[in-house]
Amino acid sequence: MPEAAAEKITFSFGKNWQEYVEHQLTPEREGIALKHLKDSLARQDLRGLAFLDVGCGSGLFSLAAYRLGAERIISLDVDPFSVQCCQELRARAGQPAHWQVRHGSILDAPVVAGLDLADVVYAWGSLHHTGKMWEAIRNAGSRVRPGGTLFLSIYNRVQGRGSSEYWLRIKKLYNRSSAPVKRLMEVAYSIRHGLLPQLLRLRNPARYFREYQQQRGMSFWIDAKDWLGGYPYEYADTGEILRFCSRELNMELLDLNPTNTTGTNEFRFRRKA
């Protein structure tokens, strides 16, 4: 796995999400996120269940869990700006007492020990940014009660052209760069991976960006900055994740949505009794 501890990190996921919550989060996008969570749960009913959101980011999916009737919700993030975002969404929901927002790291043993077991542990696109991904997966999995569900979304390992190693170098460059250079990289990425492919296929770019929003209620521009700045950056192929979760965490696979890109492989596991 790539070593990230000695690298300078100038990107805050939380600041990125603050922009999203303050300027781009609409009722439509909230509804899309709620639908995505329902689909991810395979229509599992959250009523009466405990939901742990590890690396909650904007807090959008904690909010979705609240809307779906989860009995207890804990939202955890190491980035103070993400914690502020999640607290803002909790405030918009009326400060429900059964929803807690906590500042802490899934790598911190006392923090992990202080998390009650949950029926659903949701770690969507977060643990590969900790710098110690396997430890983070182990700790998140330890908070799943027997018979409970673990949701993981982990960057795929890709070799060859556009490899994971290539993007690791790009992310390091982005984090070392000045603000103007970062903005140029963001624009270049948006053109290369958003606008240009649609034009070459004679497709309407506006339609692409609308459909992108409908995937999980996210914004292409916010996700572009999140991708370029997202460091530490780790990855694994589906076999590595399956073996680890089976052997180390006593998990059985329920669903797998794989990718052949540097995007995320999405897993739904059940912890055996």
Give the topology:
Layout: H1 13-23, H2 27-40, E1 50-54, H3 60-67, E2 72-77, H4 80-92, E3 99-103, H5 109-113, E4 118-124, H6 133-142, E5 144-155, H7 164-176, H8 179-200, H9 205-216, H10 220-229, H11 238-249, E6 251-257, E7 264-271
Parallel strand pairs: 1-2, 1-4, 2-3, 4-5
Antiparallel strand pairs: 5-7, 6-7
How would you describe the overall organization of this protein?
The structure is a single chain. This protein is α/β, with parallel strands linked by helices and 273 residues long. It has helices at residues 13-23, 27-40, 60-67, 80-92, 109-113, 133-142, 164-176, 179-200, 205-216, 220-229, 238-249, and strands spanning 50-54, 72-77, 99-103, 118-124, 144-155, 251-257, 264-271. The protein folds into 2 domains: 13-158 and 234-271, 3-Layer(aba) Sandwich (Rossmann fold), CATH 3.40.50.150; 164-229, no CATH class. The protein has a 7-stranded mixed beta sheet, sandwiched between helices. The longest helix is centred in the C-terminal third of the chain and has 22 residues, at 179-200. α8 crosses α10.
